[in-house]
Amino acid sequence: MSHSMSSPRNIQLVFETYQKARLVFVQTMADLATRATNVKCLESAGVLELLRPLLSDGCSTVRQCAVVAAARLAEHDEGVARQILNSGMLTIAIENLNKFNVYYKRSALYLIRAIAKHNEELASAIVRLGALEHIVSCLEDFDTQVKENAAWALGYIGKHSEHLAGLVVDAGTLPLLVLTFQEPEMSLKQIVAGALVDLAQHKPEAVVDAGAICHLVRGLENQDPKLKRSTLCALGAVAGARASLGEAVVAGGALPPALLHAGHDAAPVRRAAACLLRDIVKHSVDLAQLVVNTGGCGPLVELLSEGTGGARIPACMALGYIAGQSDQLAMAVIEAKAVVVLVEILQSNEVQDADLCAAAWTLGHIAKHSPQHSLAIAVANALPRLLQLYTNPKSSNEVKARASCALKQSLQCCLHRPALEPLLHAAPTCILKYVLAQYAKV
């Protein structure tokens, strides 16, 4: 080797060239990993074995890009996520979480959630590595994106099962999430609300005990539709679990804004509001009465006319739950002109089976109380259409079952002869016996 080649400057150049090559490699891998179609090719080329030592590289940018590349690969493919876990790559990232700068921390949390999102088995493995303690500590970080990624990871771990949600809650997560939800950054609020939805589905009592309800209700004052939707979903997950939790949500002041948001411009917000109202009224006559007294039937009936957006079915079910609780509440649903719209849904040829099932189910709950209630269904000409849906060979089994049940509930109270007569000639034996029984009463 010549003397010029072994000079300090040239030696330094070799190291600089090596560092640049590593940097170009990890940056290119991170870019390629953004496309799911590239994952198999990168995996077969041995990308994980090459990235592994770079997770602890001496250069901070190389380290961070290596973690991002691994996270993107894991996000797209469960098999790759499992390999990253089994090869110890995630262990390295967790151990380094609090050693390096804020960018590394963001990337390591991204890797955790990219693996956790796939299934309960992978999420459980992350917990066994002792990751929860590190993630929870990141909720107290000064950096907003670190807090966002931490909240996201906790939601992704907790959403898979009650056991995992319990471990996340036991790690002291909820008070910190509630605190973080009150911070001004909109994207942080959205992600924390999403994490609260994931945890509330399995541990609703813990969410209430952490004092989240009043803060979630206050969060509805924000104008951002994404935040409104997530917040309504979190309240719905709590309210739907048990009557006492439904009462806690109502006591926290959720009912007036829920009714207000049933008329929001954004379809996902309207749907989330309808789901929340459904989850409140299903528990008891008292909660249903409260919704009716607050003027709940009108907004719900308006949502029945929506063909798209997904609000129709939860609104329909909310009205069915209200009507099913008592004869007075069923009369309130009739007076809100719900029956006409429900029959229109049944008559339409462009609705999904789920809409037909929900409309039939709700009509049955309205009609079942008395001849007066059944008369409202009969006068709206619902019975021939229900019979048609029941006897139509093209109807699905679910539609047939719902139509049959609604017919029986309606006929057992119906004394309106003009509605009964057409059924005498068209009804099959299993329905005809109910028609004849009503004739005997008349």
Automatic annotation (TrEMBL):
<dbReference type="InterPro" id="IPR011989">
    <property type="entry name" value="ARM-like"/>
</dbReference>
<dbReference type="Pfam" id="PF00514">
    <property type="entry name" value="Arm"/>
</dbReference>
<dbReference type="GO" id="GO:0015630">
    <property type="term" value="C:microtubule cytoskeleton"/>
</dbReference>
<dbReference type="GO" id="GO:0008017">
    <property type="term" value="F:microtubule binding"/>
</dbReference>
<protein>
    <recommendedName>
        <fullName>Sperm-associated antigen 6</fullName>
    </recommendedName>
</protein>
<dbReference type="InterPro" id="IPR000225">
    <property type="entry name" value="Armadillo"/>
</dbReference>
<dbReference type="GO" id="GO:0003341">
    <property type="term" value="P:cilium movement"/>
</dbReference>
<dbReference type="InterPro" id="IPR016024">
    <property type="entry name" value="ARM-type_fold"/>
</dbReference>
